[in-house]
Amino acid sequence: MIANGIFYLWVTLNALLFFYICVEIVLLLFALTAKKQNKQIALKSYPKVTIQLPVYNEKYVVERLIDAVCKIDYPQELLEIHLLDDSTDETSSLALLKMKFYQDLGIDIKHIQRADRVGFKAGALDYSMGICKGEFIAIFDADFIPSVDFLKQTLPHFNSECIGVVQTRWSHINENFSFLTRAQAIMLNTHFSIEHLGRTSSGAFINFNGTAGIWRKLCIEDTGGWQADTLTEDLDLSFRAQMKGWKFNYLFDVESPAELPITVDAYKTQQYRWSKGAAECVRKNIKNLWLSPVGLWQKIAGSVHLFNSSIFIIVFFLVMTSPIVFWMGKENQITSVNLELISYLSLFITCFITIIFFAGHLIVVNSKWKAALLFWPNFYAYLALSVGISFYMVIGVIEGYAGKVSEFVRTPKFNLNKTDSKILKKEYSFKNKLNIRLLELFILFYGCFVISLGAYYLDFFMMNYGVVITLGFTLKVFFPKYIFKF
């Protein structure tokens, strides 16, 4: 009875993952056939532009950010810069000193502080909306380094009054810093190629990624403005805008360099916020999506998009139950027909997940052969890293669906060329609840047991699951703040 229950749960989870993979394959096909180079359009007129820079305790990168933004090539009289500073450390004093230098050069850059941090990033952006003068609003997080010609590359693509957003592709200034950053690059490259490019090409909704893009101010106002009732205010506003008929442009060939998290804790914090915020957006927007006048494909693809973070729940329980299902097969507790189903499902899902990430990564990179060779160890590291933080992500997703409110915890940025890593480890730390740590430790030991069980049965798949579980949770439990450099 219990064996049958575990088996049918496993099959159901695989069926859900199979549906998700099918949608991703459709997006992959659209991405492969999409134009990678956008048409070069000259900027015929120069509208008033506001650049918003939301920062919170970013002392290591705030000066670099101000330098980059103040060097953007655009008529000074038509550009204003708002540093939206909610900081409680020396970030503000560093920023003011740097801003004074550029203000003396005639650049309109303002230091804007609120009395409190109500609404976190969404609150800061909304506060600036009431005083900004720009017809268009560009937004950059603290770790981004926009190019000098960013505005001249992006503004021409507001070539229709219905275009509400132009989003650029993130690139990674520290991609080769360690195996952690290379693993993350594979995930983000796949997102910005298959998901963004595929969705754009297929006519599905895309989302503003919170940074490295430009909004038409009227679009924000028409959609109800920035709202702080989710941790992913960018995804929320994006869906509300597109459900109202606004269109988004994605520029695959325009890169916006940024910094990847370099510790497991920093990456976990970022992914937790994204995962919980996406679940909150499901609660808020899924009903409105299906009641909106958009097409069926947009509703299906949009639903999968919103439910993206829920994949962590499926993956976590699949990883935990698959070794048990394999063991039941070895002990003849599963019929031969079901054993065949296990074999085909495992092989199919493993192959297609790998193909999706492999193709998504190669679409982005320039050196295809080198990237193809290095993909395999880095992808394995990504799988282990994802499994290692999966339990924490499951908690975030469940909290998001349950409506549990939590603080917006920003991802720490380091500027490693300038900052001593020993200092960073002391200053950026995250507290984990003891009961969560104990459960993660238990899962780590479970992974070790699965390895030994796989070795006993000479079952490669079972051993592989054990290695991924053990490696991932070893990183999460024992090396959360360690800065790897290989």
Brief overview:
The chain is α/β, with parallel strands linked by helices. It contains 16 helices and seven strands. It has one domain (1-33, 160-486).
Look at the helices and sheets and give the structural class.
Answer: alpha/beta
Q: Number of folding domains?
A: 1
Order of adjacent strands in the largest pleated sheet: 3-2-1-4-6-5-7
**Record field, number of beta strands:** 7
Number of DSSP helical runs: 16
- Biggest beta-sheet profile: 7 strands, mixed
Helix content: 55-70%
Membrane topology: Multi-pass membrane protein
GO molecular function, one term: glycosyltransferase activity
InterPro entries: Nucleotide-diphossugar_trans
Transmembrane segments: 7-32, 306-329, 341-364, 379-402, 438-458, 464-484
Helix-strand blueprint:
Elements: H1 2-33, E1 49-55, H2 62-70, E2 79-85, H3 91-103, E3 109-112, H4 120-129, E4 136-139, H5 150-154, E5 163-172, H6 179-202, E6 213-216, H7 217-222, H8 233-243, E7 247-258, H9 264-291, H10 296-306, H11 311-330, H12 336-364, H13 368-402, H14 421-427, H15 434-457, H16 460-478
Parallel strand pairs: 1-2, 1-4, 2-3, 5-7
Antiparallel strand pairs: 4-6, 5-6
Helix pairs in contact: 1-6, 1-11, 1-12, 2-3, 6-12, 6-13, 8-9, 9-10, 9-13, 11-13, 11-15, 11-16, 12-13, 13-16, 15-16
Report on this model:
It is a single chain. This protein is α/β, with parallel strands linked by helices. The protein has one domain. It contains 16 helices and seven strands. The protein has helices at 2-33, 62-70, 91-103, 120-129, 150-154, 179-202, 217-222, 233-243, 264-291, 296-306, 311-330, 336-364, 368-402, 421-427, 434-457, 460-478; strands at 49-55, 79-85, 109-112, 136-139, 163-172, 213-216, 247-258. Strands 3-2-1-4-6-5-7 form a seven-stranded mixed β-sheet, sandwiched between helices. β2, α3 and β3 (109-112) form a beta-alpha-beta unit.
